[in-house]
Specification:
It contains 16 helices and six strands. By secondary structure, the protein is mostly helical. The strands form three sheets. The chain has a two-stranded antiparallel sheet. A two-stranded parallel sheet has the order 3-4. The chain has a two-stranded antiparallel sheet with strand order 5-6. The longest helix has 37 residues. The protein is elongated and about 100 Å long. The two termini are 49 Å apart. It binds arginine (ARG). Arginine binds next to helix 5.
């Protein structure tokens, strides 16, 4: 059923239908009904509908709502979109009075409302899922205790750090991703209903009443903005894309860690896949797909930004494409968070000792603490490192004599500072790679989760 047959002499061409109809909005069914219920209540309150009319409409809408909930709702190929489908069903249920539902409303404000209701709810779900993944990371950080690994810059071993410190870096990143979703709620939580097709209505509608019924924090301030803008949808997808990027970085590391070359981690059989050809293989496909799917979510963000850039006010049918993009981004993130969380949780960590060279900066800082300028200390330790490396040895194996020869201010007992464990034990920067810092971080992150 179309909602606009009046001025047309011919029905829609099959090709028009195929090109313009997008059933991805069917998942908005429950939200569409909820919006219609609120709209009906408002129409009755302001006297546009009689008590009897609104009661009939609400009776029908309640039935549609039950059908939506139970999955019994029957779609017709002739429904142009979810809004048409609900109105068609309402006619079937309550007859002619169904024709009064769309009073003072347009699909332009209706679709914005539905999407905002949907996103407000999915936002809460994604926030919960991100927090679940953070909890997995905190659990793993606790499990690995004081295991020491190398931090890396340029994929070269850099300094000694607790493995927990490395894992918690992702907890901080993910909590910011969560906070971005939470902040985006302010922009999403605004009711557009009452904006109508573009300019509002000449009927005495009460948009604030609809907003209150639907528990929106605010109501539109400009009807043209309300029906034409999709920045909050794009912002939601940015939140998805940035979170996927965080997951992609974590995935990349999990893939490296699971390799023979790193040998840091083993993930559970249930969360890894085999090879059809090579019997020995155990592949980190979940992490690879999370990394790969990130590209498609970035594509969704690009689509949403590009969708808006050339559009004159107000509604243009182009905007229908927003739903595919945001649903795809949101669904992909939802599944990636869950799958990666499972994979990470199944992981056992057994990293090898870092190279004995990761304490080079520590040694330079020992000299600095004795008054030696940093540049001079860097030079001296660099010379020592070069000599050891040439002999296939590391700083951890340096002798007291070699230290003394490298710089007069180095003492025999400094050899004890040159193991990765000693390096971590000597670290003092708040938020740095020490076990004390890990303890503080765990406490703070727990607080932010609560
Ligand atoms: N399916 C449309 C969309 O998602 C609903 C709004 C249609 N409005 C219109 N004037 N054709 O954007």
């Amino acid at each position: 059923m179309t909602l606009w047959g009046g001025r047309f002499e011919e029905g829609p061409a099959e090709l028009l239908w195929r090109f313009t109809v997008d059933h991805s909005d069917r998942r908005l069914l429950a939200d569409d009904v909820r919006g219609s219920q609120a709209h009906t209540l408002m129409l009755a309150e302001v006297g546009i509908l009689s008590f009897e009319e609104s009661a009939e409409l609400l009776r029908g809408l309640d039935r549609v709502s039950v059908e939506a909930e139970s999955g019994e709702f029957v779609w017709s190929d002739d429904d142009e979109d979810v809004h048409s489908a609900v109105e068609r069903r309402l006619y079937e249920l309550v007859g002619e009075v169904a024709g009064k539902l769309h009073t003072g409303r347009s699909r332009n404000d209706q679709v914005c409302l539905d999407l905002r209701l949907y996103l407000r709810r999915s936002l809460d779900a994604r926030v919960g899922q991100i927090e679940d993944l953070v909890r997995v990371l905190l659990g793993k950080a606790e499990d690995v205790g004081d295991t020491v690994v190398a931090s890396y810059t340029h994929v070269q071993q850099a300094q000694a750090v607790p493995l927990a410190h490395h894992l918690l870096a992702y907890a901080w990143m993910l909590l910011r991703d969560r906070d971005r979703f939470v902040a985006a709620r302010d922009r999403i939580d605004v009711s557009p209903l009452g904006a109508g097709a573009s300019a509002g209505s000449n009927l005495p509608l009460d948009p604030a009443a609809v907003a209150a019924t639907l528990d929106f924090a605010g109501v539109f301030g400009n009807s043209m903005d309300a029906v034409a803008s999709r920045d909050s949808v794009a912002e939601y997808v940015f939140c998805c894309a940035q979170t996927m990027v965080t997951l992609s970085r974590l995935s990349e590391e999990m893939i490296l860690w699971a390799s023979e070359e790193y040998g840091w981690a083993t993930f559970g059989d249930a969360f890894t896949t085999g090879s059809s050809a090579m019997p020995q293989k155990k592949n980190p496909d979940i992490a690879e797909l999370a990394r790969g799917k990130t590209a498609t979510v970035i594509g969704d963000l690009t689509a949403l930004l590009t969708l808006q850039k050339g559009l004159p006010l107000t509604y243009n049918r182009d905007l229908q494409e927003d739903k595919r993009a945001v649903f795809h981004a949101d669904d992909t993130l939802a599944l990636a968070l869950a799958a990666l969380g499972g994979m990470l949780d199944s992981g056992r960590f057994h990293p090898p000792e870092p190279s004995g060279m990761v304490t080079a900066l520590d040694l330079a800082e020992i000299l600095v603490s004795r008054g030696v300028p940093f540049r001079e200390a860097h030079e001296a330790v660099g010379g020592l490192v070069a000599g050891l490396a040439a002999a296939g040895r590391t700083l951890a194996e340096a002798t007291a004599e070699e230290l003394g020869a490298a710089h007069e201010r180095l003492l025999p007992e400094d050899v004890e500072a040159l193991t990765p464990a000693a390096s971590v034990a000597a670290r003092v920067t708040p938020g740095g790679g020490s076990m004390e810092s890990v303890r503080v971080q765990l406490e703070e992150l727990r607080k932010r989760l609560a």
